[in-house]
C-alpha cells in the first residue's frame, strides 16, 4: 500500500491510526470527525462519525470501536465495504 498524496490526510489532524491484519486495512480517525478506511487496492473510504473522533480500536474479526466527542459513547462498527453499525 502506498499513500503519498496529501489528499489522504485529515483536515484537522490525526488522533489515532490502527492496522487491521485480518483485512489488510488501515483505519485512521481525526479531529475533523471522520474515520477513514484504507485498503491496498483503492482510495480511502471516509465516514463522518462525530465532531471529533478521539480513538479507534480494532479486533481481528474486523470489528472497529470508535470514541467520538460529544456523545459519551463507544460505537461499534464492522469493516466491510464501508462501516456498518
Helix/strand layout:
Elements: E1 14-20, E2 25-30, E3 34-38, E4 45-48, E5 53-58, E6 63-68, E7 75-79, E8 83-84
Antiparallel strand pairs: 1-2, 2-3, 3-4, 5-6, 6-7, 7-8
Please trace the helix and strand order, writing H or E for each element: EEEEEEEE
**H/I helix tally:** 0
Silhouette: globular
Number of strands: 8
What structural class do the secondary elements suggest? mainly beta
Strand content: over 45%
Distance between the ends? 26 Å
Supply Rg: 12 Å
Portion of residues in helices? under 10%
Q: What's the overall average pLDDT, rounded?
A: 77
Characterization of this structure:
With 85 residues, the chain is an all-beta fold. 0% of the residues lie in helices and 48% in strands. It is built from no helices and eight strands. The strands form two sheets. The chain has a four-stranded antiparallel beta sheet with strand order 1-2-3-4, with no helix packed on it. A four-stranded antiparallel beta sheet has the order 5-6-7-8, with no helix packed on it. A hairpin with a 3-residue loop joins strand 2 (25-30) and strand 3 (34-38). The mean pLDDT is 77.
